[in-house]
Design goal:
heterodimer, A: mainly alpha, about 0% strand, B: mainly alpha, globular
Chain lengths: ~300, ~260
């Protein structure tokens, strides 16, 4: 009986030990995480939105204002990190003043829609995009983005937005890569981060082979998911496959470009246009064109 | 007026003998210094987050200095029984109150000057530019806002039993007005009937302290405020401050001191 009890205890301990070790490894160890718990995510979101408020030089809706034109942070929409769902006029979220106090108050707060990459409050040339020129005051959004990433390391958009502005508008490719790699350490194999890192290698480092490897790994990660694809997964699968197709086409690998376009077609918002491109590629390869597109083209 | 200035001088002397102001100034300098030592993505030119933190600390410090200084003026005079020899001199109760108000307001102005000089130094060291007019407008609007708050706290010190309860109520009221005062009309529009009338009534009655909070303009380097609007805001603050001091005088005139 005693031997049986001993075996039972040993077996239970052996079963519990790896689980307990794994649980301890998952538990956050830094002071901030221990103190704040899951409220970190709420604060991370607040700082992400604050970065967008800085992007607009403080001209930003409060919880009392109309949010239709600010559903997706503009800095994230411009970076291509999030699907743009904004509607309506972004300059008119405050509406007409409701009374004389509100009319008077508006002289004491930012009351013009500007973006930092267009000159911000000092340039105040709304709509005058500085293009690929150094992004002026865009650097001012970075502290809030870094804080947001530290509070919620699993928020992918933060890494993508930060990387975009760092490398495209500030020319800080090394910092962008380092930040993306920090993101990958916290979110191993995340397809969106792999996509952004691939873009960095292709556009900034001119290293197409490495970009190809990263994008293929991203697609592989999405396809390994057993559950049905979510909308963000489909959005990212589309980005990855389209980028790979363009890359292969630029290298003259038309059959590979065709293969990736076929992956892209089911997740594309405009499948008929993708089919037309597929047909063009098939035409160049000397393959027969699909009958579906022939019928579509024949239709009035 | 000499009587008023005599009381004013005493309040200012009391202010610089106390440690509150020095502690808050040192804390502001330390916290801003620590935050300024952080670099993000190896970029030394990022400055607006630092301006925001510094201004937030200045606003908190100014509210603490103004409310705590005013809230204890009259109760401490009564508690120490110094009010009796003071009123035995050829000075009216109204002059005593106005002197207290003016002393606290000027003392807060001196404190604000120190804070904003530090803020200007931080900004110049980071941005290498100085928007003097914008900073002047921000600092003086801040000071005018404190006139309303000091009047409110002075009135409270004659109504509420203890300085602590007066200070707490003033803090809560000031914070609430600064956070939601601007949006009460929007809230009122979502309500119906009597509730809407009540909330709109509150919206029109409260002193709109948030008008004077122009931190966003100076953090993001917006152009200065047009002078006519600036002057109107200053007048608005003085009228509200005057109303509170007048109400305090009316109460103090009939108040038993023992």
């Amino acid at each position: 009986m005693l031997a049986l009890l001993f075996v039972l205890c040993f077996g239970t301990a052996a079963w519990l030990d790896p689980r307990y070790t794994a649980l301890r490894a998952q538990r956050p160890t830094d002071v901030l995480s221990v103190l704040m718990g899951d409220s970190r995510k709420m604060f991370a979101n607040h700082f992400f939105v604050k970065a967008d408020a800085y992007f607009h030089s403080g001209f930003y809706p409060t919880i009392f204002d109309n949010h239709e034109s600010f559903q997706t942070p503009h800095m994230a929409g411009d970076a291509g990190a999030m699907k743009d769902e904004n509607e309506g006029e972004e300059t008119a979220f405050m509406g007409e003043p409701r009374d004389f106090i509100e009319r008077f108050t508006r002289h004491f707060m930012p009351a013009m829609h500007t973006h930092l990459d267009e000159g911000g409050a000092e340039g105040a040339a709304a709509g005058a995009d500085l293009g690929e020129a150094p992004g002026g005051q865009v650097r001012e959004i970075l502290p809030w983005l870094q804080l947001s990433a530290e509070l919620d390391p699993n928020r992918i958009e933060t890494y993508m937005v930060t990387s975009y502005w760092l490398r495209k508008r500030m020319g800080r490719v090394n910092e962008a890569e380092q930040f993306l790699r920090e993101g990958l350490r916290s979110n191993p194999g995340d397809s969106a981060l792999l996509f952004e890192l691939g873009r960095l290698y292709q556009e900034d480092r001119k290293n197409d082979d490495r970009a190809r490897n990263l994008w293929e790994l991203g697609i592989q990660r999405i396809q390994e998911e057993k559950k049905p694809l979510s909308d963000p997964d489909k959005f990212m699968l589309g980005n990855l496959s389209l980028s790979l197709s363009r890359l292969e086409e630029s290298h003259g690998n038309l059959s590979d470009a065709l293969r990736w376009l076929e992956v892209f077609k089911p997740v594309s918002p405009h499948p008929s246009q993708v089919q037309r491109q597929i047909d063009e590629l098939r035409d160049r390869l000397g393959e027969p064109v699909s009958s579906v597109t022939s019928k579509e083209q024949a239709a009035p | 007026m000499n009587n008023v200035f005599a009381v004013t001088g005493i309040v200012i002397k009391e202010m610089y003998r106390r440690k509150d102001f020095y502690v808050l100034l040192i804390l502001t300098v330390l916290i801003t210094g620590v935050m300024g030592s952080v670099t993000f993505f190896n970029d030394e030119k990022i400055s607006r987050y630092l301006k925001e933190i510094c201004l937030l600390l200045i606003w908190i410090s100014s509210l603490v200095i103004a409310i705590t200084t005013v809230a204890r003026q009259m109760p401490s005079e009564k508690e120490n029984r110094t009010i009796f020899p003071l009123l035995a001199k050829p000075i009216t109760r109204g002059q005593v109150l106005f002197g207290k108000f003016l002393g606290c307001w000027l003392a807060c102005g001196i404190a604000l000057l120190c804070f904003y000089v530090f803020f200007g130094a931080i900004t110049v060291s980071r941005e290498h530019q100085f928007h003097f007019l914008s900073y002047f407008q921000a600092a003086t609007l801040h000071w005018f806002m404190l006139a309303i708050l000091i009047g409110m706290a002075l009135l409270g010190s004659l109504i509420f039993a203890a300085p602590s309860s007066n200070a707490t109520i003033c803090f809560v009221a000031a914070t609430a007005i600064l956070l939601v005062g601007r949006h009460l009309n929007q809230v009122a529009l979502t309500l119906r009937g009597g509730q809407q009338t009540f909330v709109y009534g509150v919206y029109y009655a409260i002193p709109h302290l948030e008008i004077f909070d122009v931190r966003d303009l100076i953090i993001h380097n917006w152009p200065g405020i047009a002078w006519p609007y600036y002057a109107t805001a200053a007048l608005y603050a003085l009228i509200y401050g005057g109303l509170f001091v007048t109400a305090a005088c009316l109460i103090f005139r009939r108040k038993a001191l023992n």
